Amino acid sequence: MTDKKKTNVTIDNSTDGIRGKITLNEEVVATIAGMAARQIDGISSLGKSRLIPFGDDPRRGIEAQVGNKQAAFDIDVVISYGIDIRKVAAELRTAIADGVNKMAGREVVEVNINVVDIKLPEDEKPVKETPPPRVQ
Fold first, then answer.
1. Cα–Cα distance, 29 to 42 (Å, whole number)
2. Which of 22, 31, 107, 120 could form a disulfide with 11 if both were Cys (CB 3.0 to 4.6 A apart)?
3. What single DSSP character describes residue 100?
4. Contact yes or no for 71/27 (Cβ under 8 A)
5. How would CATH label the architecture of 8-121?
6. What count of Cα atoms within 13 Å lies in the side-chain half-sphere of residue 19?
């Protein structure tokens, strides 16, 4: 993610007569979207490099814009070879919309998906031979 001012969004929330507010940082909402994306079969990784697996920051490759009622996302993904990209994109949009609505109470109005790479099957990668040790 680019370095920019962190945006907080506040929700007025009252339950059982107790007033209060919930403040969400855009990064929190981006994390929700990133975790939803990790659940989709066919998405190899998030972000521009396929060399970094899912074990890294869940916001990697995700830009979020969050308002008081709605959210929009731009997401960079690496897709596994042979997967129907349109199907994965539809599943991804649904998963992000459901997760963000459930956890943050925001209607997701847009999810732009940028496929930045294709992960090739492991068996198609050339096998790198290890040279024998120079000394024993």
1. 22
2. 22
3. H
4. no
5. 2-Layer Sandwich (3.30)
6. 1
pLDDT per residue as tens, the chain (136 positions): 444 556 676 665 666 778 888 888 899 999 999 999 999 999 988 887 655 555 567 778 899 999 989 999 999 999 999 999 999 999 999 999 999 999 999 999 999 999 999 988 874 555 566 777 777 6
**What residue type is assigned to position 57 of the chain?**
D
41 touches 95 (CB < 8 A)? no
Positive or negative, the CA dihedral 44, 45, 51, 56 is negative
Alpha-carbon gap, residue 10 to 52, rounded angstroms: 33
Asked if 71 contacts 57 with a C-beta cutoff of 8 angstroms, the reply is no
Domain ranges of the chain: 8-121
The C-alpha atoms of residue 13 and residue 3 are separated, in whole angstroms, by 30
- CA nearest 10: which of 43, 91, 20? 20
DSSP reduced 3-state for 65: strand
20, β-bridge pairs: 13
Q: Cα separation of 108 and 33, whole Å?
A: 10
